[in-house]
Design goal:
globular; 386 residues; single chain; mainly beta
């Protein structure tokens, strides 16, 4: 889910994004449209996924309505996350614009490049990176998270090898032509699992997380797969400049399925958080007293006793976390429990629950840049929903 503001891209007249998080909070205009990926819940029907344009302008006659659907050319894509082609690292370069939305497809391993420059409310497909363009040559599949880099490249995490078995990796695309360039990580580094990632250049670090293999995920959740070690429990700490793996931190049973990772928006901060879905815990990521990267559990969502579910104790299943632009609040989606939680993280080591909204399956989130709204969607992955 991504946004555009006041009918124009946020980088008009300068480079993309904002010069600082504070600038974004103070000067970021109200969003008027959202782009939301919508996966067909039953691909067997032959109907494709689509990108929805949602009107969120309160003054509009079509407020809170879908005003356009961009259909993908094939069924079975499983659109999931999305990202932009250019970021605030290029803010000072007026020749760079944020005009392309990147849509990785977990199911088909395609990566769609969507052009929003001509018609913001009715974007079009600009390019399709097919699985064959990188799958066999780089031994990758199931692209997930997309981030734009200051080098004018787009980096996409992958969670499988070319056979659909578990393997974490990172794919680099040219940020202008969107041609496949190479792996990001050193060729001798292959992770057991992959999922999300976040980089903090001023600390020369990237942190990546772990889910499971595409082949296992397609069959739905089976508790036995956890005991078989088919889901990840590690945080992976990388040297950003050298593109090498520094260490892996095992969070054990308290950290099963570490999914979304977020650092504070302050680029000087060395603190982040990761939500562990099945364990329903949130860990703080930080530098310890000997200047080494470490983690500690700071939020624990209790399970609920239930009948008729896959397990006798139902965890919250934290599918997404977000941090407000002013770094004051953390928002967590407890998907199965059906609540969205707000924590005050002014003291990052001791978060305090300050708000909670229940009664629906909150899943993926997006935070308004001007610091007053959270937008959320409901679904996660077709096989997991079923």
């Amino acid at each position: 889910m991504h946004r555009q503001e006041n009918g124009v891209a946020c980088c008009a007249g300068k480079g993309p994004g904002y010069k600082s998080p504070e600038d974004a909070v103070r000067n970021g205009p109200r969003e008027t449209i959202l782009y939301v990926t919508c996966a067909n819940p039953d691909p067997e029907t032959g109907k494709p996924d689509y990108l929805a344009t949602v009107d969120v302008d309160p003054s509009s006659d079509t407020f809170c309505q879908i005003i356009h659907r961009l259909l993908m050319p094939s069924a079975g894509d499983e659109l999931h996350h999305s990202g932009w082609d250019a970021c605030s690292s290029c803010h000072s370069d007026s020749t760079v614009a944020r005009t392309k939305l990147i849509l990785p497809a977990l199911g088909s391993s395609r990566i769609y490049v969507i052009d929003t420059s001509a018609k913001l409310k009715a974007p079009k497909i600009h390019k399709v990176v097919e699985a064959k363009d990188y799958g066999s040559s780089l031994d990758m599949s199931a692209p997930h998270t997309s981030h734009c880099l200051g080098s004018r490249e787009v980096m996409v995490s992958t969670i499988g090898n070319s056979n659909g078995d578990a393997q974490g990796g990172f794919l680099l695309l040219d940020g202008t032509t969107f041609e496949v360039k190479s792996r990001w990580q050193s060729n001798d580094v292959k992770l057991p699992f992959g999922y999300d990632f976040w980089y903090q250049p001023r600390h020369n670090v990237m942190v990546s997380t772990e889910w499971g293999s595409p082949n296992v995920l397609k069959t739905g959740f089976n508790p036995d797969d956890v005991s078989k070690g088919l889901y990840g429990t590690h945080l992976n700490i990388w040297n950003w400049k050298e593109k090498t793996l520094r260490k892996r931190i095992d969070m054990g049973e308290e950290g099963i399925m570490p999914l979304e990772v977020r650092f504070m928006h302050n680029p000087d901060s060395s603190v982040g958080f990761v939500g562990c879905a099945l364990s329903s815990n949130i860990f703080r990521i930080f530098k310890n007293e000997v200047d080494e990267w470490d983690v500690e559990k700071v939020i624990d969502v209790p399970s609920k006793k239930v009948e008729g579910w896959a397990l006798p104790d139902m965890p919250g299943i934290i599918t997404d976390i977000l941090i407000s632009m002013d770094d004051r609040y953390l928002y967590a989606s407890n998907w199965i429990h059906g609540d969205l939680r707000q924590y005050d993280v002014s003291d990052t080591a001791h978060p305090k629950l300050t708000g909670q909204v229940s009664e629906t399956l909150w899943c993926l989130q997006h935070y308004g840049v001007y610091n007053t709204k959270v937008f959320t969607t409901l679904s996660i992955l077709n096989s997991q929903v079923k």
